[in-house]
């Protein structure tokens, strides 16, 4: 995954769409922040801090360079190597941070309220008395007091004493030029376990460079274990305590006694000692800690969020639409159905998936001005994916578009013209009179190509009243308010129509009906005597020349129509060419006024043969 502006925008959109539970996110951030703060505290003042910085630099560089190349340019093998590199980097981190991990686990198990609450009074008294003597005489001393974590690894390399703790014993051990005075003493419970013990030394960058080897050993052992280490400086006689990798210096005997009581008894408030007032240094330290913890917490949560996203495929029906303010129209999208692979939170992806389970999501889309000019336009690849990603149902949910199939969208933009056309009444079989319309004209928007195909005589908007007038008796005057006008003209769709309604007032003159005549009408032959002398007319089927007629017209006239009132004939002239093949001729039907033939005129088949007796 390449993190860019779109990634962050999608994250904010998911927050706005309700894809996350605010309380759940707050708890996640709190837990991650506490864990990061604990890790920062465990690494503070150790060489692991610099190691962590180097690891982060390598990680960021590898991600920005390798992942971008692998995803943007399709370098699959490089991406595979990156995955193996990340696994190897995790093992390297475990080895490199082994001391820090051990120290952190030790501290995690050091629960203050589980310590013994009764102060080791005899031990503290002996330590304070000995520290005072050694400090006054500027004899160097290094004493480790074992707590929960055993110090046997360091004690076994020293001189085993197993003697009861006393100030005199400690004074004699650290007396100058004594065999055991240069190294450390380990106290376990009320007994001196060993003397002359070599302690692990802290790195030079973890303590003040001006401090000597005793102080570095005290910090090193307190960082590697939960031991409390007492140090007396040989040069200055300063008394110090090392605990959890931190060194507290310049302690008086009273301060030393309070610190020992507090730390050995498990009281984190320093016993009866008054709390130290907060200083500007503490505030600056807290600000620096927050400046590191807060961004790292957000980054970790963001990476976890990206890893928890799911993929799925939805179906959409994309319908290009033009801007009403622009005189163009979108037609013929090919194709309009797409399968879109999206990535997002489980809630949003499944919600969108459910909406397209039975039928595709119908989504209208309005292209930008550059792609709204007359002509054919095609979107492909990333351009099409960008269009789909910007659609409201996908963008507002903060979803990523991974793939769109098919990978191209083509459509035609046609110019739209707006014309003013008259409104007429279409009454169908009902004959009307005195039709008045308000308004008499309408503004119509049509595709220019469609308008050019409509004959001038048919360029009018119709108010189709045929069904409405079917049962209205003849002679009545009717008014129809806000009658909806047809949105098709000569079979072509109207894009915009204004107004869409009209008030119509008219008089029904007569209702028209249809009727099929019961008797067949014989088709007559109209020809001159010369034609009949020259040609012989042969009918293919005599029954075909007896035709059935269906007529329509005013109800009274159609009801009174008789077969004798109707004529049907075919006219022949001398200029017609004879032949052996049968041919068709339309029948001319003559009906009374007000009665019309339904459908096309019938046809009969015949052939003309030259009579043998005919004169050329």
Topology, element by element:
Elements: H1 5-17, H2 22-43, H3 48-72, H4 76-96, H5 98-109, H6 121-137, E1 141-145, H7 152-155, E2 159-164, H8 167-173, E3 184-188, E4 191-197, H9 213-224, E5 228-232, E6 239-243, E7 246-248, H10 253-265, H11 280-307, E8 310-320, E9 328-334, E10 337-344, H12 346-355, E11 361-365, E12 375-380, H13 381-389, H14 392-395, E13 400-405, E14 408-426, E15 430-438, E16 441-447, H15 448-453, E17 461-464, E18 477-484, E19 488-489, E20 492-493, E21 496-498, E22 501-516, E23 521-522, E24 524-526, H16 529-534, E25 535-539, E26 546-547, E27 550-554, H17 555-560, E28 567-571, E29 583-586, E30 588-590, E31 595-597, E32 603-610
Parallel strand pairs: 1-3, 8-11, 14-17, 24-28
Antiparallel strand pairs: 1-5, 2-4, 3-4, 5-6, 6-7, 8-10, 9-14, 10-13, 12-14, 14-16, 15-22, 16-21, 18-22, 19-20, 22-27, 23-26, 25-32, 27-31, 28-30, 29-32
What can you see in these coordinates?
This protein has 17 helices and 32 strands. By secondary structure, it is an alpha+beta fold. The strands form eight sheets. A seven-stranded mixed β-sheet has the order 2-4-3-1-5-6-7, sandwiched between helices. Strands 9, 12, 14, 16, 17 and 21 form a six-stranded mixed β-sheet that branches. Helix 2 packs across helix 11, helix 3 packs antiparallel against helix 4 and helix 6 packs parallel to helix 8. It is rod-shaped and about 165 Å long. The protein starts with a helix and ends in a 6-residue tail after the last strand. About 2% of the residues have low confidence.
């Amino acid at each position: 995954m390449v993190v860019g502006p779109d990634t962050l925008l999608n994250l904010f959109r998911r927050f706005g769409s309700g894809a996350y539970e605010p309380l759940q996110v707050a708890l996640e951030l709190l837990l991650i922040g506490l864990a990061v703060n604990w890790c920062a505290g465990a690494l503070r003042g150790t060489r692991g801090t610099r190691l962590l910085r180097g690891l982060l630099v390598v990680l960021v560089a590898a991600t920005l360079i390798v992942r971008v190349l692998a995803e943007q340019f399709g370098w699959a093998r490089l991406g595979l190597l990156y995955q193996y590199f990340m696994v190897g980097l995790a093992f390297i981190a475990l080895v490199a941070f082994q001391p820090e991990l051990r120290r952190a686990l030790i501290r995690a198990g050091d629960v203050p309220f589980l310590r013994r609450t009764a102060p080791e009074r005899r031990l503290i008294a002996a330590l304070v008395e000995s520290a005072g003597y050694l400090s006054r005489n500027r004899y160097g001393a290094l004493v480790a007091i074992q707590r929960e974590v055993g110090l046997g690894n360091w004690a076994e390399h020293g001189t085993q004493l197993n003697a009861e703790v006393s100030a005199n014993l400690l004074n004699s051990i650290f007396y100058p030029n004594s065999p055991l005075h240069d190294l450390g003493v380990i106290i376990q419970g009320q007994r001196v376990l060993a003397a002359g013990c070599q302690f692990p030394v802290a790195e030079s960058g973890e303590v003040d460079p001006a401090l000597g080897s005793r102080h570095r050993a005290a910090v090193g052992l307190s960082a590697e274990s939960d031991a409390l280490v007492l140090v007396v400086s040989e040069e200055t006689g300063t008394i110090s305590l090392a605990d959890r990798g931190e060194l507290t210096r310049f302690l008086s005997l009273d301060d030393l006694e309070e610190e020992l009581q507090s730390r050995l008894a498990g009281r984190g408030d320093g016993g009866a000692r008054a709390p130290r007032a907060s200083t500007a240094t503490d505030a600056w330290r807290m600000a620096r800690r927050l400046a590191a913890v807060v961004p790292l917490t957000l980054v970790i949560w963001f990476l976890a969020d990206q890893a928890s996203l799911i993929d799925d495929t939805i179906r959409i029906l994309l319908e290009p639409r033009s801007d009403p303010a622009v005189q163009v129209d979108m037609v013929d999208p090919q194709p309009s159905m797409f399968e879109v692979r999206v990535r997002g939170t489980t809630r949003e992806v499944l919600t969108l998936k459910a909406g397209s389970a039975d039928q595709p999501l119908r989504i209208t889309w309005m292209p930008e001005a550059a792609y709204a000019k007359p002509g054919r336009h095609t979107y492909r690849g990333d351009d099409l994916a960008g269009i789909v990603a910007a659609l409201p149902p996908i963008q507002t949910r903060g979803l990523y578009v991974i793939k769109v199939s098919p990978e191209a969208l083509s459509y035609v933009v046609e110019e739209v013209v707006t014309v003013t056309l008259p409104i007429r009444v279409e009454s169908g079989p009902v004959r009307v009179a005195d039709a008045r319309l308000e308004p008499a004209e309408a503004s119509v928007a049509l595709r220019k190509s469609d308008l050019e195909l409509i004959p001038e005589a048919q360029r009018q908007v119709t108010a189709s009243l045929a069904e409405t007038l079917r049962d209205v008796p003849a002679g009545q005057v009717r008014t129809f308010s806000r009658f909806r006008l047809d949105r098709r003209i000569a079979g072509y769709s109207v894009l915009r129509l204004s107004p869409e309604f009209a008030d119509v007032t008219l008089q029904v003159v007569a209702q028209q009906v249809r009727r099929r005549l019961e008797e067949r009408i014989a088709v007559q032959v109209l020809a001159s005597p010369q034609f009949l002398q020259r040609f012989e007319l042969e009918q293919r089927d005599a029954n075909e020349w007896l035709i059935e007629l269906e007529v329509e017209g005013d109800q009274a006239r159609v009801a009174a129509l008789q077969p004798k009132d109707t004529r049907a004939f075919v006219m022949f002239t001398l200029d017609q060419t004879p032949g052996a093949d049968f041919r068709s001729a339309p029948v001319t039907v003559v009906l009374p006024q007000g009665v019309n033939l339904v459908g096309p005129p019938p046809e009969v088949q015949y052939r003309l043969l030259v009579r043998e007796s005919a004169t050329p």
